[in-house]
Design goal:
heterodimer; A: 292 residues; alpha+beta; 3-stranded antiparallel beta sheet; 3 helices; 25 strands; B: 292 residues; 4 helices; 18% helix; cytoplasm (chain A); transmembrane (chain A); cytoskeleton (chain A); disulfide bond (chain A)
């Protein structure tokens, strides 16, 4: 305005004004400089708007907050995520750990499979919890207690149950197709022990000897047909102060027919039995040399 | 220049004066200049805000030359070298370890593998906890790398496959019901003991019970009676020597009293070895009685 007034005064004063201020210069932006300035400002505005839009777009897409992106926090030591996360391709990790005080779940609507591969990417061990069952596969499976003691192991050659005791509770008991190898078979306290072969024979075989003891009771052997005590090279000893043969048949006098040779049972002082041909009187004394 | 021309024209004469009347001074000054300044200032403010937002992004994301914090974004995925915290479920189809590294899964509480069916019910589960490891499923199966079954367990039983089952616990195996096996045998170079500590032990087999000791003795010991009983067949003592070591010796009484008071018998033997008895007399009566 000042300049405008100056300009306005100038025409009126004419020569006087012109003469008084010959040093005044015009100040302003005009001509090509003005157009450049306009263009530059416009360009700057466009760039700023685009940049701001891009930034806001980043913030929007990443769901930015003061601390992070949505539920994701990037911290100085790693990453923290408070919502669900989804990985469509394999997730590689060194360690998977639950938070303190919290359990860790690995679950699936099909199978959960833990695979161990060798250098050639071949499967060497596997544990599958599936919809149909739990399957473990490998050279060996071992279960140990906290103190390192072997409780269970299974490999190609054998299954070992190392716990203090293996208990089989099923009502049908245990079935072994081949053999049971053990130094000791024992009944539970206050229960009987039965060895039973429901449809066939039962064998007890031990080369160095079989010993049957009933320290507080009877021994009883019962059968329908023959009961045989046999000794190949030794003797049979009935070592009791009372021996009964309760159902021995009684001989009957026979007045006719040919007389067969019969024997008399004699006993040595040491209890050895021997036979002596029966005669009118006792013939044991005649044969007593067998007792020597 | 325009002004100068004007002055010059005035000085020269009226001839140039009409021409200069059409030229207007055009430039940026006055209110337009102030608006321009304000506008530039506005752009500057927006620029600073945008820059602050960008700095904020870089800060929050811990940007560096290679990525965000320890997180690097590659064309084929993400790579994180620090720790990541997932507070909610992680959905993944596959979790791998690096090729040269083990994968560790650990928790201060349980680690649980769950497999579910279409309805979302858990059908197979394996859980390892602070005090116990537990699995439940339709079945549990251990197989070797050659797909041979080593161990199998389901609701109706447990099966140990090829090889053998070894129980090494000091208390051995406890079967609450029965053990079904064709053979019970001793460990090599050890004795086999069948024991019922407080009750009886019985052996049943319809086709016969055989007790064999091919290089030793069979000993039967009882506190009370030893009973050998055959319902329909023979009782056979088959040995070269049969010994009754503790048989008591009868004492002679007065002849008259003893004869009248007791029936006495004599044991006789047929040639076939069959025993029978005969009424005792003053001398042997075997030859008088025959039942061979």
């Amino acid at each position: 305005m000042v300049r405008m007034m100056t300009q306005e005064q100038c025409p009126h004063r004419n020569n006087v004004q012109s003469t008084e201020k010959p040093q005044v210069y015009k100040v302003g932006i005009y001509g090509w400089r003005k157009r450049c300035l306009y263009f530059f400002v416009l360009l700057l505005m466009i760039l700023i708007v685009v940049n701001l839009a891009l930034t806001i777009w980043i913030l929007k897409v990443m769901n930015f907050t003061i601390d992070g992106m949505g539920h994701l926090r990037i911290t100085e030591r790693g990453l923290k995520l408070e919502g669900d996360s989804e990985f469509l391709q394999p997730l590689y990790a060194k360690e998977i750990q639950s938070r303190p005080g919290s359990p860790l779940f690995l679950q699936s609507s099909k199978n959960v499979s833990v695979n161990i591969l060798n250098e050639k990417k071949q499967l060497v061990s596997q544990l599958v919890a599936g919809s149909h069952g739990v399957h473990a596969r490998g050279k060996m499976l071992e279960v140990k207690s906290s103190s390192g003691k072997l409780l269970f192991s299974a490999d190609d050659h054998e299954v070992v149950v190392g716990a203090e005791r293996l208990r089989v509770m099923g009502a049908e008991g245990a079935v072994f197709s081949n053999s049971v190898e053990t130094p000791h078979v024992r009944a539970e306290p206050f229960k009987e022990l039965r060895l039973e072969s429901p449809t066939r024979s039962l064998y007890m075989e031990a080369p160095k000897g079989v010993k049957i003891e009933a320290d507080a009771g009877d021994f009883q052997a019962t059968c329908r047909s023959d009961l045989r005590l046999e000794s190949k090279d030794g003797e049979i000893s009935l070592d009791a102060s009372k021996i009964k043969l309760p159902r021995l048949p009684e001989g009957k006098a026979s007045t006719s027919g040919p007389r067969q040779t019969v024997f008399e049972v004699c006993v040595c002082p040491n209890g050895k039995l021997f036979l002596s041909q029966a005669g009118t009187g006792s013939t044991c004394q005649m044969s007593s040399n067998l007792c020597l | 220049m325009v002004r100068e021309q004007y002055v010059t024209t005035t000085e020269e004469s009226g001839v140039l004066s009409p021409v200069s009347e059409y030229i207007y001074m055009i430039g940026i000054y006055g209110w337009r200049k102030r608006c321009l300044y304000l506008f530039v200032l506005l752009l500057l403010i927006i620029l600073v805000v945008n820059f602050a937002l960008t700095i904020w992004i870089l800060r929050v994301m811990w940007f560096n030359a290679e990525g965000m914090g320890y997180l690097q974004v590659h064309e084929d995925g993400l790579r994180l070298e620090g720790e990541s915290d997932f507070l909610f479920p992680v959905y993944a189809q596959e979790i791998d370890s690096r090729e040269d590294s083990a994968l560790l899964i650990q928790s201060s509480e349980n680690v649980t593998l769950n497999a579910r069916n279409a309805n979302g019910d858990v059908t197979g589960s394996v859980s390892v906890g602070p005090s116990q490891a537990e699995g439940f499923s339709k079945y549990f199966n251990i197989s070797s790398n050659h797909d041979e079954n080593l161990f199998y367990a389901d609701g109706s039983g447990a099966i140990v496959g090829k090889g053998k089952l070894r129980v090494t616990g000091p208390e051995g195996a406890l079967f609450e019901h029965s053990v079904r096996t064709p053979m019970v045998k001793a460990v090599l170079n050890k004795e086999l003991k069948l024991e019922s500590p407080t009750r009886s032990l019985s052996m049943d087999a319809p086709k016969g019970v055989h007790v064999k000791a091919l290089a030793g003795n069979v000993d039967v010991t009882a506190h009370f009676d030893i009973l050998l009983h055959s319902a329909e067949g023979l009782l056979i003592l088959d040995a070269e020597t049969v010994r009754l070591p503790k048989l008591p010796v009868g004492e002679a009484g007065t002849s008259g009293d003893s004869q009248g008071m007791y029936n006495m018998y004599e044991v006789c033997v047929c040639p076939s070895g069959k025993l029978f008895f005969s009424t005792a007399g003053v001398s042997s009566t075997c030859s008088e009685s025959q039942d061979c």
